[in-house]
Design goal:
Structural class of chain B: alpha/beta
Strand order of the largest sheet of chain B: 5-6-7-8-9-10
Low-confidence stretches of chain A: none
Mean pLDDT of chain A: 89
Largest interface: A-B, 28 and 40 residues
CATH class of chain B: Alpha Beta
Radius of gyration of chain B: 21 Å
Distance between the termini of chain A: 23 Å
Distance between the termini of chain B: 22 Å
Helix content of chain B: 40-55%
Shape of chain B: globular
Strand content of chain A: under 5%
Strand content of chain B: 5-15%
Number of helices of chain A: 3
Oligomer: heterodimer
Structural class of chain A: mainly alpha
Helix content of chain A: 55-70%
Largest sheet of chain B: 6 strands, parallel
Number of strands of chain A: 0
Chain lengths: ~60, ~400
């Protein structure tokens, strides 16, 4: 999800939607012989669930 | 010939959306935000609808079946205490557990010295809000989550597992509830997604109201930076839950970021500059926001009028309907204005008279939605809710 201008201006260490950045995980994995984009996409999709969890705890519960 | 539920749904959706776009539909839509009232109507206790969301869903659907309402929220009982108990959240008084079973849940704000965020932790929050929530806030607000650096416990691990799965289960139950509302009674699901202002989040969930008030004088630069750091995250969360069809608005629950809780200067320095860009971003993504202005936000109507036309639906609680209509009625749809105390303690004819007055002020030209001033709890009188509904159907036809 792109937040256009706002995200560019208000940068925090972890950007919205991210709990553990892919870059951090990629270092642990090292060389990926298979489809790197697939690994990244699924990592980020599942990681966002954790992000949503804590922010929904804050906002909705 | 009786209408099918498909026809009824289509009519209601068109009516509701037309009004929200500040245009004139066939008649005034009725969209009550009913919470524990649904329990009263359906024969449940507050405990039952707060703790068992399937009962809350059933109660909402029973109301939708029996009242001619165009839109309702699938479950307006704000917190599902099944989840809050599973993760050990400390800040709720839960009906049937810590408060009587027929009292609506209560939010327990800690004393100032025990605020969930300490005054010297602003820099941590500003640098990494998500990290702060996981590492500092969650261990403080949960009885089960251990502090970072301490050994993980069985209860800690289960808190995350149960919390995550319970949240997923609950959120995934809403599409089915929305479909049942549509297919059983032709009722529109009124809102999708949730927003709170950075300034309100700081007060409500982090520093506490008194703590934030002190911070406004002792460390104002940190308060502003914290609000700015929260902005993209709260925007993301709001958009993540928004209606993919862009029909119904994101609900924005407004709390204490207004005069007299804070000064005009505080609103203009902290609250508005860190809220307005969020609303503009959401509108740029094609979604309206329902400004659920609980209390009285009349002091800030000129600021709200800066927003793009039709970008919000403005809900009136204790504000003056004439003032609101005059200041923002040209730009935004207005909802609400029927006082909860009247719906609880008045007589049906008094409710009818009030509805007429509000409709005459705000509804003659379209762009008005009938609703109570604030979320209707179990003090709402059934006959008064019926009077509000029936009168609006009689008098609210264009």
């Amino acid at each position: 999800m792109e937040l256009r201008e706002m995200e560019k201006k208000k940068q925090t260490k972890r950007k919205p939607g991210v709990a553990i950045p892919w870059e951090e995980k990629a270092k642990e994995l090292g060389e990926i012989p298979g489809d790197k984009q697939l690994v990244q996409k699924i990592w980020e999709d599942v990681d966002t669930l954790a992000y949503i969890y804590v922010w929904q705890c804050l906002v909705s519960f | 010939m009786a209408k099918s539920t498909e026809q009824l749904y289509a009519e209601r959706l068109k009516r509701y959306v037309t009004a929200m776009r500040n245009e004139k539909p066939d008649m005034i839509p009725i969209r009550p935000f009913v919470a524990e009232f649904t329990a009263k109507y359906a024969g449940y206790t507050c405990q039952e609808v707060t703790h068992d969301y399937e009962k809350a869903f059933a109660a909402a659907r029973k109301c939708a079946a029996d009242f001619d309402w165009d839109a309702v929220v699938g479950n307006m009982v704000y917190v599902w205490s099944g989840l809050t108990e599973a993760i050990g959240l400390k800040y709720y008084g839960v009906p049937g557990i810590s408060i009587p079973p027929d009292t609506g849940f209560q939010y327990l704000e800690p004393p100032q010295e025990k605020a969930f965020m300490k005054p010297d932790e602003y820099d941590q929050l500003i640098e990494d809000p998500t990290g702060y929530l996981f590492n500092v806030w969650l261990p403080r607000v949960s009885a089960d989550v251990t502090e970072i650096g301490k050994p993980a416990t069985y209860r800690n691990n289960l808190s995350f597992l149960k919390g995550g799965m319970a949240m997923m289960q609950y959120f995934n139950a809403f599409p089915k509830q929305n479909e049942l509302l549509k297919s059983e009674t032709g009722t529109v699901s009124a809102i999708a997604g949730i927003l709170k202002a950075p300034f309100d989040i700081l007060a409500d969930k982090l520093r506490g109201y008194l703590g934030l008030c002190a911070d406004l004088y002792e460390r104002p630069d940190k308060v502003l930076a914290a609000c700015e750091a929260l902005m993209p995250h709260l925007t993301y969360v709001a958009l993540a839950g928004a209606d993919p069809d862009k029909n119904v608005p994101i609900g924005y629950w407004m709390h204490r970021g207004c005069v007299p809780f804070v000064s005009h200067e505080h609103f203009n320095t902290f609250q508005w500059p860190t809220l307005k860009p969020i609303i503009e971003e959401i509108w740029a993504n094609g979604h309206q926001v329902l400004f659920y202005a609980e209390g009285n936000w009349d002091a800030h109507l000129d600021s709200f009028a800066e927003l793009p036309d039709r970008s919000i639906v403005y809900h009136v609680d204790q504000g003056d309907m004439s003032t609101v209509h005059k200041k923002v009625g040209e730009k935004f749809c207005i909802s609400g204005g029927i006082p909860n105390w009247l719906l609880a303690t008045g007589k049906p004819q008094e409710v009818r008279d009030c509805c007429k007055q509000v409709i005459d002020i705000a509804g003659r030209g379209g762009g008005y939605i009938m609703d109570a001033s604030a979320i209707v709890q179990n003090d709402g009188d059934i006959e008064n809710m019926r009077a509000m509904t029936e009168f609006t159907r009689e008098y609210g036809v264009y």
